[in-house]
Amino acid sequence: MTPVERRKDDAHQAVAQLRRQVRVVATVIGAAMLVLLIAVVVVFTKVDSSADAAVSSSEAAAEAAQVALDVTEQIQQSRAEAIEQECRDVNLRNERTVNTLRGLIRKEVKEHPEREAEIREGVSSTILLIDALVPVRDCHARVEDLTDLPPIAGD
């Protein structure tokens, strides 16, 4: 073989070897890209699952918040009802006390008609004292003053 032919043959062998090396490198790069692609898919799947979990958690939190609001509303409504009932009880107590006083005054006047002016003289101040100790109140206004709720409907 002549030196030119040998160089040509060496060049062909070098090119063939280079082509084999390029194929190996291309195969390695392809495999690496495939592994990278699989990793990206796995990450996005986990992100998607995390997003679903976050949405589920968000929905659960929203439900819990709504339950808390409902319970708070029920507590406020119960509080308003208790305030209104307490107010009515106080007003009834005042009315009964004043009526009892007036009944006692009538009885005392019947038993001692000569002292009627003296007996009736203290009635007004006694009723003022009763009103000061057990005041009659507007129950609807009291509910509004002590809560953020309107008066109880139907009353």
- Strand percentage lies at under 5%
Can you give the helix content as a percent range?
over 70%
Poorly predicted residue ranges:
none
Number of helices: 4
Helix/sheet category: mainly alpha
Structural domain tally: 1
Radius of gyration from the alpha-carbon trace, in angstroms: 48 Å
What is the typical, i.e. mean, pLDDT?
79
Characterize the largest beta sheet: strand count, sense, and whether it forms a barrel: none
Backbone shape: rod-shaped
Instruction: List SSEs in N-to-C order.
Output: HHHH
How far is the first residue's CA from the last residue's CA?
121 Å
Query: Total strand count, please?
Result: 0
Description:
With 155 residues, the chain is mainly alpha-helical. It has one domain (3-146). It is 86% helix and 0% strand. It contains 4 helices and no strands. α1 (3-111) packs antiparallel against α4 (139-146). The longest helix has 109 residues, at 3-111. It is rod-shaped and about 165 Å long. The mean pLDDT is 79.
